[in-house]
Amino acid sequence: MTFRQFACNNVLRNKRTYAAFFMSSVFSVMIFFVYAMFIFHPGIVGEEIHESVATGMIVAEYVIFLFSFFFLFYCVGAFLKKREKEFGILFMHGMTPMQRNVLICMENMLIGVVSIAFGIGLGMVLAKLFFQFAGFLLDVKALGFYLPWKAIGLTVVAFLILFAAISLFTVLLLRSRSLLELLQGSRRPKREPSASIVLSLVAVALLGMSYWLALTADGIYVVALVLPVTALTVVGTYLLFTQLSVILIEYVKKRRAIYWRRTNLLTLSDLAYRMKDNARMFFLVCIVSTVAFCAIGTLAALAGSIQETVVKTNPFAFEYQSKAGNPDKDVHLQLIENSLQQGGFSFEKYQVSMRVLPAVPNMERIGVVKLSDYNRIALAANSRELKMADNEVFLLLLWFDDAVKQKTLRVGNQELIVKTDTKMNPLISGIDFERLAVVPNKVYDQLTNLREEQRFAYDVPRWKDTQDISLKLIDEIEHRNDMHSFAARAPVYHQMKQMANTGLFIGLFVGVLFFVAAASFLYFRLYTDLENDKRHYGAIAKIGLTDAELTRIVTTQIALLFFVPILVAIIHSIVAFVSLQSLLKIMLIASVVKPTAIVLCSFVIVQAIYFWVIRNRYLFHLKRSMNRI
What we know:
Helix content is 66%, strand content 8%.
């Protein structure tokens, strides 16, 4: 048998252990490849797809590549630890450390080459479905299939380099152990798990502080606190699994009423060792799952609220504003109305006049509108109407979190009391003024010899279908100059929808990749312990362990393995979403509750199905080794 055959046989003999590693590698390659197909697609140039889509795909490629490196590097290191006894036997038969390193590199590259081949093949099979899904999300015609030689070349080169780098780093970081330690392998006696009460308290303090900062942050301050809160959460989570979990288990073990009840003695006595051994894996699964939950949930909230956001920021399908004396006003208005009539669109036209108050040093320019005119516009835009006394003036905010400091405002010969509302978004902007003030009708009628502006708003029920008309009008009417401004809602909606769906499209697959990686961590950890569990439960079965008791113990332990890190990740995600809610309000996103609930429930359901399948297979292998089936 040649050395190459020996390496191939090693991989085939451990196929059950390598299964999750291999499938995760294939999935990573497939996602990287289909994104590369999209980037290099010849139909991208000159199509409706915005350039940000391709840019987002390129960013996703970097994220996938970096994540794949760290994920696969962790898995390979864990595999080698499981094979210590095998290497000890090989060293006894004359293998040198250099030959071991060559063997490891050959095995890694073999898995890598097969993963690349399967990933590209699967990507080619699913490419048409991928393009159709992308076209549906981006609201454009689906791209056609093509032979992606550039994408194939990029994927092959990138992942060959990745697997080669993993192999090199793995052999460089291998720790030297004595022959006795290698031969003992996983049967080396385990030390009693210990944890620090001080570090456990630090874990509680760090997580408590991060949650407090996240929940009390408001508006734009959420962005400033992202990095410190993330750092506190990551460190706190690591200490939670490595220290606090062991302390809690030891506390439960001291409660005899719980510890000595039925099979809890067997479950809890082994649980502290498992928590200590699996602490880093729990930590990785928790952090990776949290990132996946938050990314997909936030992007789903953004994509689902685009129409609401666009309607609030652009209350009418078309808006034309003109200063007094604009010679093109009538021509432009006629062009807008003729275009809508020729396109078969019904519309309602609204007109409002505004006057610009004299400039005041060190103050923003203010335009005023009559209360009755504003309420008519507000009613048409499904916004709240205003009510005020004769000595009051209502100042509209420029955006959320904007503030009005002045308590009074002089309008004409009167000093009016200023009112405002932080929950109202502006319906009208100006050419020669920054802020709009709504004044009582009598006050407005008394204003004379002031510059005037007129705003014409068109309410079109089928405004989503006016994309072509809007683009044509934007070309024919200069968007903005000193005398007029023109805005259309449909192009803004389609562009924002495409960009938001691009983020969801990219984040969905990257998030699923993260979740698959987390599931692979769990699968690998479970089957790494399988041989030890066979010996462990086989010995206990000889003194009377029943099938029902075995099933209950194993189900409890596997459930904790699967759901403890996911539960912590869900708590992290809920806190993050509550914090993000105040930031997203600035973007006119009303709530993230529905998309968050859908994302979290979907992941929990998938995790539950995965748990049920793995638990049944694990019990099958245990019982077969004990001759119970």
